[in-house]
Design brief:
Blueprint lengths: L2 H6 L13 E7 L5 E8 L6 H14 L1 H5 L5 E3 L3 H5 L11 E5 L7 H12 L4 E6 L10 H4 L4 E5 L5 H13 L3 E5 L4 H8 L5 E2 L17 H14 L5 H8 L3 H11 L13 H8 L1 H14 L6 H17 L5 H13 L2 H5 L3 H5 L6 H9 L5 H11 L10 H25 L5
Helix pairs in contact: 10-12, 11-20, 12-13, 13-15, 13-20, 14-15, 14-20, 15-18
Length: 417
C-alpha cells in the first residue's frame, strides 16, 4: 500500500492515527514561486492543546514536513507549548511560529521567543492592521521577529506602503496577507515585500477581451480532441503520439513506484487499456495542465488537489460520475489557469452537462462537492454545524490529495533528457 493510501485509511483507525485537520496556504514571492506555507487548523471539537501536541508530534515524525515538502512553514502554537523547554522546533529550522501582537506584553514569553530566535527559529508577527511605527507596545516583538505579515485587505494602500517601507528599512521581511483580488495584488507588487498571500491565486484576473496564447489554444485543441468522438485506447494513443514530452511525463508518472503497477506500461494505449479510457483521459488533462510553465506552480497544485478531492468525495456515485467529478475538480480552476472567463474557455470544450453545469451555474451533482472543497480551502466549514467525522474524513481526503498532487506535479514539471 502506498503512503497516501495508508494515510487515507486513517479515519477508520483510532486515537492519534487520525490525520490532522489542516490545510497548507502558500505565500508566494514576487516571482510567484513558493516562499513558505502557513499551516491552518480547521475548526473541530478537539481540545486546542491536544491538537497542538498532535501537530508537534507530526513535526517530530516528519509527517508535517512531507505535507509541506520540506519548505519553510509557519504555524500557530499555544503559549504553553512555546514555553516548554522541550523545544521541538529547535531541530526543525524550516518550521516557524506565527505570533499575535499581544505576545509583546508577556515578558516570560518574550524571553522564550528571543532564545528561539537566537537558535534560528523563524518568527513571524501577524500584525494585521496594528500600528507598528514607533509603537512601544509591539517594539519587543519587532526586535526578535524576522518577518511581519500585514493585512492588505484592511490597510489603506498608503498605510500599507508606508508600513512596508518602515519595516523594510529596519531589515524585517514583510509579507502581505489577505490579498484576495488582483487589484490589491498589483499594488503589492510595487512594495518592498518578501511574499504575498491570499485568494488572488485562485481567482481569474478580469480581462476586457479574452485572448488565448498559442500554447493555450493548443492545449484546448488537445482537450477538445479528448472529448470528441468518444475516443478509445487506440485513439487516445494517436491523439498524444506527436507530443513526445507529454507521453514521456504520462508514462513516467503511471509507471512510478507510487502506483505499484504489476508491470511496466510502454504506451499510452496500454495505459488506457489498463486504467480505462476515462481515467486515462483525466491523466492526459492532468499532465497537460500541469506542464503550463507560465502559471504559478501552487495554482497548478491546487487544481490537482481539487481534482483528487472531488473524485474521492464522489465515491458514492456511479463509476462514470466519479471520473467526471475528477474533471470537474481539475477544471474548476481552468479560468484562472487560462487567464480567461470560464464561459469563454468552456465554449471551446464539449464537456458533459454535469461538468459544465457545475462550473458555470453551480448546479448539478458536482456543485455541492466543489462548494465543500472551496469551504475546506478557506477553513470555513460553518463551525459547529459540521460533524467531527466529516472534518476527519475531509482531513484524510485532503492529505491524500496533496501527496498525490505533489507526486504528479513532480512528473509533470520535469523534462526528458
Amino acid at each position: 500500500m502506498s503512503e497516501a493510501a495508508a494515510i487515507s485509511s486513517a479515519p477508520e483507525a483510532s486515537g492519534n492515527e487520525q490525520p490532522l485537520p489542516v490545510i497548507r496556504l502558500p505565500m508566494l514571492d514576487t516571482k510567484r514561486e513558493l516562499f513558505a506555507y502557513e499551516i491552518v487548523f480547521q475548526n473541530e471539537e478537539e481540545d486546542e492543546a491536544a491538537l497542538m501536541r498532535r501537530a508537534l508530534a507530526t513535526i517530530t515524525d516528519g509527517a508535517l514536513a512531507r505535507l509541506v515538502r520540506g519548505n519553510r512553514t509557519f504555524l500557530r502554537l499555544t503559549r504553553d507549548l512555546l514555553m516548554e523547554e522541550t523545544d521541538v522546533l529547535q531541530h526543525q529550522p524550516r518550521f516557524g511560529v506565527l505570533l499575535e501582537p499581544d505576545a509583546a506584553t508577556d515578558a516570560a514569553l518574550m524571553d522564550r521567543l528571543a532564545r528561539m530566535a537566537q537558535r534560528g527559529c523563524p518568527l513571524m508577527l501577524d500584525a494585521g492592521d496594528t500600528a507598528l511605527e514607533f509603537n512601544a507596545a509591539v517594539e519587543p516583538l519587532l526586535k526578535v521577529v524576522q518577518f511581519v505579515r500585514l493585512d492588505a485587505g484592511k490597510l489603506e494602500p498608503a498605510t500599507l506602503r508606508s508600513r512596508s517601507e518602515y519595516l523594510h528599512a529596519r531589515g524585517i521581511h514583510v509579507v502581505a496577507g489577505h490579498v484576495d483580488d488582483h487589484a490589491t495584488y498589483h499594488r503589492c507588487e510595487e512594495l518592498p515585500l518578501q511574499a504575498i498571500q491570499g485568494q488572488f491565486l485562485l481567482k481569474p484576473e478580469p480581462v476586457e477581451v479574452p485572448v488565448l496564447t498559442a500554447n493555450r489554444l493548443s492545449l484546448l485543441r488537445l482537450m477538445r480532441a479528448l472529448q470528441e468522438g468518444n475516443p478509445g485506447p487506440v485513439e487516445l494513443g494517436q491523439i498524444v503520439r506527436d507530443d513526445a514530452i507529454l507521453s514521456y511525463k504520462l508514462l513516467g508518472c503511471v509507471n512510478s513506484a507510487y502506483f505499484a503497477l504489476p508491470r511496466q506500461l510502454k504506451s499510452v494505449q496500454q495505459a488506457a487499456i489498463f486504467f480505462g479510457v476515462s481515467r486515462m483521459r483525466n491523466w492526459i488533462y492532468t499532465m497537460a495542465l500541469s506542464g503550463m510553465g507560465d502559471r504559478p506552480p501552487e495554482l497548478l497544485r491546487a487544481a490537482l488537489i481539487r481534482a483528487h478531492m472531488c473524485e474521492k468525495l464522489a465515491q458514492h456515485m456511479p463509476p462514470e460520475q466519479r471520473e467526471m467529478a475528477f474533471t470537474a475538480g481539475l477544471f474548476s480552476l481552468l479560468d484562472t489557469l487560462m487567464e480567461a472567463p470560464m464561459d469563454f474557455v468552456l465554449w471551446h470544450l464539449p464537456l458533459a452537462r454535469e461538468i459544465s453545469g457545475a462550473l458555470l451555474e453551480n448546479k448539478g451533482p458536482f456543485a455541492p462537492l466543489l462548494e465543500q472543497i472551496r469551504a475546506w480551502e478557506a477553513g470555513d466549514l460553518r463551525g459547529g454545524e459540521v460533524q467531527p467525522q466529516v472534518i476527519r474524513r475531509m482531513a484524510a481526503i485532503y492529505l491524500e490529495a496533496t501527496q498525490w498532487a505533489d507526486h504528479v506535479y513532480a512528473y509533470a514539471d520535469q523534462r526528458p533528457n
